[in-house]
Amino acid sequence: MDEHGRTPVVPVRSCRAVPVPFPVTLCGVTRVILVCLCLLALFTTSHADELDDAFADLEALERLDALGYAGGYVPAPAETGVLLHDPSRTQPGVNLVLSSHRLGASVLDADGKLIHEWAFDPWVDIPLEKIPSFAFRARRKGWNYWSRAEPLADGGLLFIQKGCGVFRIDRASRLVWAKWLPAHHDLQIQPDGRIFVLARTEQQGNTTPDDDFIVTLSATGEEQGRISIVHAILNSACAPLLQCYGGNRPYLHTNKIHVLDGRWADRAPAFKKGNILLSCRDIDTILVIDPKAVRVEWTLSGMWRRQHDPRPLANGNLLIFDNRGNKGYSRILEINPFTREIAWIYEGTPPSSFNSQVGGVCARLANGNTLITASTQGRAFEVTPDKTVVWEYVNPHRNGEHIAPLFEVRRIPQWPPPRVVPVHRSSG
């Protein structure tokens, strides 16, 4: 919808200045500042020692970038675990915790007591001759963690090991099936059992940027099809998003996939059933793709920076983790995607108290509260509509001297699940 309300569809944004086509991480802004200082020193002084020190700092930041989630970002705090719990105001249930310190997931009660855990390491639990070469390359890049996990009705788990694939394990962490592909960030299970997952082409050298794909899997892990997100952009009116890169394919860094159920199609045809909502972090854009036409039908941007996890709500709004839109710090936005009006916002006080430069998850709970995972801070907390924190958890685990980032803390109704269904096993 434009500013005059003449159409229910938000227009595709025009081409504008966008970030350079390489991955931007926590240290990106600092790196730019340091480079500028180095150049200033080079052209205005003859202090070679200061210049050497500046480049040494830059190299240190590059090493931190390479570590990423494996190395952590924030020094570990003294107080960890559940720091706050107001039972009268929190959403009942238990918490599925996905931490970067190990290949596994846990279920904790509201007070932090361990109820159940899963652990699965492909490099130990699967014969090496069955592991494809791209998975070894992913491991060498430091992508040795689960980036998303989905609890199943039989007590098992479906999870992504970044850059390696999608795996299903049972309640006892035994492999049910494995689908090897360069999966990353997110997946969604459909009512009919199909699985939609994000995957990426492998980068061959520094001059060939990656392309993201939507891959459809059957309930037992067989690939049923894939769609190029770059092709869908180029096949639409928003192709200028990529032309701003001088014709090169950008590193889209797609981090969210959500198959629409059609409930808001009367407000915008692009939201019809079966279309797919995506978040592309490195172009600061949320978009909707028609998978049959392989074409982008709707985009929205300009209200956030480096966003994660946009989620449609029952009222038709989107809940978005805005990583850097609060003067460089993080915030949560609830917006009307058709009018662009902000319905609700959560920010830290001071702003630096809520800050996840990468990662991040937000979910609206059944009682109206919002559960937020500040990934790089290793912190999850539940806030009421009036922005009162009523539950807070700080990851007690470390990656070296840093707190281990949290990929997600999800509130689930109960453990064990209310019903058990049989599963079909595979040799992997």
Share in β-strands = 35-45%
CATH class of the largest domain, anyone? Answer: Mainly Beta
Largest sheet: 5 strands, antiparallel
- Give the beta-strand count: 27
Mean pLDDT, as a whole number?
84
CATH homologous superfamily annotation of the largest domain? YVTN repeat-like/Quinoprotein amine dehydrogenase
CATH architecture designation of the largest domain: 7 Propeller
Strands of the biggest beta sheet: in what spatial order? 1-24-23-22-21
Poorly predicted regions: 1-67
Measured as a percent range, the helix fraction is 10-25%
Q: Give the overall form.
A: globular
Count of separate DSSP helical elements: 6
Termini separation comes to 48 Å
Instruction: Calculate Rg over CA atoms.
Output: 22 Å
Count of distinct structural domains: 2
Classify the secondary structure makeup into a structural class. mainly beta
CATH fold-level topology of the largest domain: Methylamine Dehydrogenase, Chain H
Oligomer: single chain
Structure in words:
With 428 residues, this protein is mostly beta strands. The protein has two domains: 27-72, no CATH class; 73-412, YVTN repeat-like/Quinoprotein amine dehydrogenase (Methylamine Dehydrogenase, Chain H). The protein is built from six helices and 27 strands. A five-stranded antiparallel beta sheet has the order 1-24-23-22-21, with no helix packed on it. A four-stranded antiparallel beta sheet has the order 4-3-2-27, with no helix packed on it. Strands 5-6-7-8 form a four-stranded antiparallel beta sheet, with no helix packed on it. Helix 1 runs antiparallel to helix 2. The radius of gyration is 22 Å and the shape is globular. It starts with 27 loop residues before the first helix and ends in a 16-residue tail after the last strand. The model is unreliable at 1-67 (pLDDT under 50).
